[in-house]
Amino acid sequence: MELLQFTDKGIWCAAGDFYIDPWKPVQRAVITHAHSDHARWGHQSYLSEHAGIPLLKLRLGADIHIQGVAYGENIFLNGVKLSLHPAGHMIGSAQVRVEYNGEVWVASGDYKLEADGISVPFEPVRCHTFITESTFGLPVYRWEPQQQLFSRITNWIYENQQAGKASVITAYSLGKAQRLLYHLQDKVSRIMGHGAITNVNELLLSQGYPLPTLERVTPDIPKAAFKNAVIIAPPSADDSAWMRRFTPYSLGVCSGWMQVRGHMRRRNADAGFALSDHADWNGLLQAVTATGASKVYATHGFSSVFARYLGEKGIDAQEVTTAYGDEETIINPET
């Protein structure tokens, strides 16, 4: 029997009697990060890296039963050794290392290799078997260095300001929005936000993260106040009455899918920026290589393509169907 098994509830460790990011209610859930496809309501107990606890409580409710552990701290569940290690995906994100009878598996959750400045950077973990995401598992997805990308975003904002327009940027409220705020805070004088984003920002400010104070967009703010401002909004606000109050504005979409032309037109965006909190093609390959794993399971994303490529390179790789996806899959060309 394999150390970790793919079941209809999630990734299960029979020996330790726990699940990793289960999508159906279970007794004991180990959570890689607080995004809704990996952290779901209804489990009897949760285990997370310490920094993820406030975010999980924000998303799932303050009354959930949750235990926190530090990165690299070993705990034992029915004799199975378990530890969490930085995934670099967002604040509190972790890879799950599971060891039993000399066999080591790592479930990556979601991850990226480039340090974003606010989450603990990705650390490769040596293992025999690696469960990897493959959200952007095609060679076309290769991210430009974030310093260059944020320079382009900043220049776009300045051009909008010269034209007397507000700059509305859509980004997922948990993770990417904070990354934007962190990198724009010294370059823009006025940044405003949708309530979904200001709620997360206020929580993280209270936890001591180096983020700017974000002005919440409310109905009583006069229209003139939006001129030349930067407004961060979740993708769900796109083309809504809430967003039309900023007219005239220019819309920028931050998503890894913006790497491919055509997605910007589909979103009716004025600008597209391929900013992603997932590893690109090269990052996925680098991460797999760094683990030294002889067996790889590829989950959500372009899993069949990525597994086939690894197989051609001599790695025993297999596609696995799970219930994972994320904010960016709403415009995934596969769906």
From TrEMBL:
<dbReference type="GO" id="GO:0004527">
    <property type="term" value="F:exonuclease activity"/>
</dbReference>
<dbReference type="InterPro" id="IPR026360">
    <property type="entry name" value="Xnuc_lig_assoc"/>
</dbReference>
<keyword id="KW-0540">Nuclease</keyword>
<dbReference type="GO" id="GO:0016874">
    <property type="term" value="F:ligase activity"/>
</dbReference>
<dbReference type="InterPro" id="IPR036866">
    <property type="entry name" value="RibonucZ/Hydroxyglut_hydro"/>
</dbReference>
<protein>
    <submittedName>
        <fullName>Ligase-associated DNA damage response exonuclease</fullName>
        <ecNumber>3.1.-.-</ecNumber>
    </submittedName>
</protein>
<keyword id="KW-0378">Hydrolase</keyword>
<keyword id="KW-0436">Ligase</keyword>
<keyword id="KW-0269">Exonuclease</keyword>
<dbReference type="InterPro" id="IPR050698">
    <property type="entry name" value="MBL"/>
</dbReference>
